């Protein structure tokens, strides 16, 4: 059990750490549906419909969503896949996936990077400005490589899922690949952070969510694209009550503090209410405090500080160490 003095120190460290850092968002998606005919370099019908759905739901500049809590993306990147030595396997599908959104936002698609250039992509992230959101459409096999290169190996899935486990719509038979599966609806979200603009971006957290596509471009925007589903309040200090004491705690998340955020005294019930940007929580203050206890491992005592109401559109995952067991938060945080 943490003493009151130690609790206050942890909370102050959390507030100062989050307040001084800069953040950016990266959303990674697989290009839209394709046919089984690999000679066809274009999206299939469902892929074009998905591209239209993305444009409609993401291009709405007046609404915030779980996937885009800061509003529509500031940059769009699509991979380039030229023909191989035999003149095969070319693909323009990533570009076609983002093209309708590009037109809605009057935002160009950066379409110059070879799909196998993992290191080049990671380096390109360093050009992001603080507070920007990047949307990336790529060949799905390389998305796990991006995540691992950003330092989230072991905290994120080892590979892109073969099945989306999404019940809102069933993919057409032509979109099913025996080797690669038929998951096109998943969004992988990374929160990047740095202490200042002179520092390199690195990963703070990983989250997985669904677009909610139901087969037609004019379908309702649901799941992580649901309007006003944004749970985040970036860089806004909210009062957090512990017994009779009210301390300023930076709440990265929660349009309003959830039920249970203001709790009566007693060390066992002291918690920090953090709903993440998108689904992920940058637990930088917690991780920093843990350095004093277990060299970076998030201990059970610190894990008990957390409270979260997992959004239904987020994948359920608990944090990066065994000591984090017991928390209901659907997050995998970089410690």
Describe the overall structure.
- The protein is α/β, with parallel strands linked by helices.
- The protein folds into 2 domains: 4-20 and 233-274 and 282-333, no CATH class; 22-225, Rossmann fold (3-Layer(aba) Sandwich), CATH 3.40.50.
- The protein has 7 helices and 11 strands.
- α2 packs parallel to α3 (93-105).
- The chain is globular and about 60 Å long.
- Residues 232-335 have low confidence and may be disordered.
Quick summary:
The chain crosses the membrane at residues 270-290. This protein is of the alpha/beta class.
Layout of helices and strands, plus pairs?
Layout: H1 4-20, E1 22-30, H2 45-58, E2 75-78, H3 93-105, E3 109-110, H4 118-124, E4 133-138, H5 143-152, E5 186-194, E6 202-210, E7 237-242, E8 245-250, E9 272-273, H6 284-294, H7 300-303, E10 306-307, E11 332-333
Helix pairs in contact: 1-6, 2-3, 4-5
